Amino acid sequence: MKFAIVSKGDERSETIKTRLIEQLTDYSLTYDLDHPDLVISVGGDGTFLEAFHRYIHCLKTTAFIGVHTGHLGFYADWVPSEVDQLVEEIAKTPFQIVEYPLLEVIIRSKSDRVEDRLLALNEAAIKTTDGSVVFDVEIKGEHFETFRGDGLCISTPSGSTAYNKALGGGIIHPALEAIQVTEMASINNRVFRTIGSPLILPKHHTCLLKPLVDRSFLLTVDHITDTYTNVKSIQCRVAKERVRFARFRPFPFWNRVRDSFVAEDDPTLPRR
Ligand code: NAP
Ligand code: MN
Fold first, then answer.
1. Could you give the domains of the chain?
2. Which among 13, 45, 182 is the best mutation to test ligand 1's pocket, defined by most ligand atoms within 8 Å of the CB?
3. Considering the chain, what is the average pLDDT of its residues?
4. How far is CA 126 from CA 84, 155, 211, in A?
């Protein structure tokens, strides 16, 4: 089996990277940055996003795993003290695979050309540097609303605990093949009206954003921002591709949510 490591680059992550390479090659695994079967990210969730985008061209054949060197992460859920155990588990392949849904974003230009097709592990956030965004929002081919405001965030289930959560979106279990649309400061008055609540769309329900004013857009997919001009539409839906996680022990999604966001039980405090 071939493996690659993407490190955050700080001293702690680099030390773990070196240790992982030594131990895994001792088990006759091959360090191969070009065609890995397993990609190990060492750092935080941000590092995991980087690893995902680096190996996005081979999602079908690559599985990911995250070791965190900072606080507990959603994607980086192995701690440094467990590295020896992780190495043994990896060496004992085959391992179990768990798949999570992704978001597909297609940007079309005014000439109806597909300018870009992107995949997000967390979300796509659409904003502008130039005042508010004004979009016609279509769902499944029907006009839903005209949105005016700072922007919209369209997230995956595993990304629902990231930016989406800060925007008041709900947390979606990744077993649900869905995307969630959340608003960023929508303008609501007698002229402009939006739904105001997050929308959760199932697979095959496409959300199409059609700009009503000629602006350049800032599209942030996970941690990568690009500017687009001359945009006719931005199409979002559940992607046909999925991300594969190597799973060596159960760590249920809701436990990860609890451990990340709900204060741990402190036995010295009275029970609330
Ligand atoms: P960052 O500024 O370091 O990320 C912000 C925080 O989000 C970090 O604590 C990061 O964890 C955490 N995070 C990333 N994915 C997560 C997930 N699926 N569930 C829970 N927490 C998650 O930038 P970054 O590390 O490059 O990450 C990019 C992400 O930041 C974007 O995809 C977006 O979701 C998020 N973001 C959040 C806000 C906000 O909450 N207001 C605003 C902009 C962007 P680590 O520290 O482990 O990296
Ligand atoms: Mn980060």
1. 2-95+248-261 (3.40.50.10330), 102-240 (2.60.200.30)
2. 45
3. 95
4. 42, 11, 11
